[in-house]
Amino acid sequence: MMLFTLSTTRRALSTTSFSSASYCIDMVKKADHASYLTGLLLPAAAKPSYFALAAFNCETSNMKSVTSDNSAGELRMHWWRERLGEIYDSPNGLDDTYLTSPILAELQPAIKNHGLTRRFLEQIVDARQRDLAITAHPDLTSLETYIQNTQVPLLKLGLECVDVRDDNADHVASHLAMSTGLANFIRAIPFLADAKIVAIPGDMLTKHRIRSNALLQPSSNPDERLRDDEAVKAAVFDLAVVGNEHAHHAREMFEKSPCPPEAKSVFVRGVEQAMFYKKLEEVGFDVRHAMIKEVGLNSLPVQMAKHRYFANCPF
Question: Shortest CA distance to 283 belongs to which of 291, 273, 295?
């Protein structure tokens, strides 16, 4: 059943003519594969809105990497804030000229059809805008605040796409999103290092005595390089511990406090993060070797479908 569900959904999506909907789906598939797989497992009525929301997230989160200076990113974030204001404030919604944007063309009906909370969307834009000026977080608190203002409202909006507005589900979402956000951050560390950015929060660099250049230019001295590697692994371990604690709280809340059944389809997004933390531990917290590459019954699509349809806890 689970393989049939995924394969038939993919076929239906692939045969759809190019449109704003297919643009959003393709964007999410390339930029956030776990969210793409989650979207495939959602009820049919929720899929267009969920993919519009996920594409909006990909678009705004990518702004920092595609702009060479803060001013361009600032202008783009201002543009998004204005468009959201028009969707919510104007009786007729957006002017037709803006609906040539595939994401806006899908996001506007998503907002109208599900009553998506304006505060959550604006919270994401505001946090992305503030992040444009931050090269690296000075401490873990700063990183957690950023995740709190981006991933948490995003997951709560995902719940609204399946028409879930529930305090218990929101509490689960808060912890699950923090865990997912930290996993995403850890996974990005080596890629940011390749771009000459030291992403590990400043307080952890100090705590583990990590040389500022350790990630950017490994030492030619074998002993020093080994010390650097172990120090970075220790910092990754600390981040993973915090992420796993949030995941544990999310599972505990889900099992003890009843959530609407529809929430389960959104919470399967957490399967990917759980698999990543497990892999990270298996490779001794060496993040460059922690990619999920399992195939067959241990692959991410199968595990997500299994948790969606057969497991008591969806993550």
Answer: 291
* CA-derived radius of gyration, the chain: 20
CA distances from 179 to 62, 74, 172, 276 (A): 20, 28, 11, 11
Asked: is 150-315 a CATH 3.40.190.10 domain? The reply is no
CA 154 – CA 206 distance, rounded (Å): 32
pTM: 0.90
Separation CA 156–CA 166 (nearest Å):
10
Which two three-digit tokens encode residue 245?
Answer: 């604690």
Q: How far apart are CA 186 and CA 190, in angstroms?
A: 8
**What is 87-115 written as a DSSP string?**
HHH-TT-S-GGGGGSHHHHHHHHHHHHHT
Task: Give Cα separations from 119 to 145, 212, 296 (angstroms).
Answer: 16, 38, 41
Which residue ranges make up each domain of the chain? 19-133, 150-315
CB 250 within 8 A of CB 175: yes
What is the DSSP track for 267-299?
HTTHHHHHHHHHHHHHTTT-GGG------GGGS
pLDDT tens per residue, range 105-136: 999 999 999 999 999 999 999 999 999 988 88
Share above pLDDT 90 across residues of the chain, in percent, rounded to a whole number:
80
- Predicted confidence band of residue 15 (pLDDT cuts 50, 70, 90): very low
Cα(222)–Cα(228) distance, rounded to whole angstroms?
Answer: 10
Containing H/E element for 20? helix 20-31
pLDDT tens digits, one per residue of 285-307:
999 999 888 888 899 999 999 99
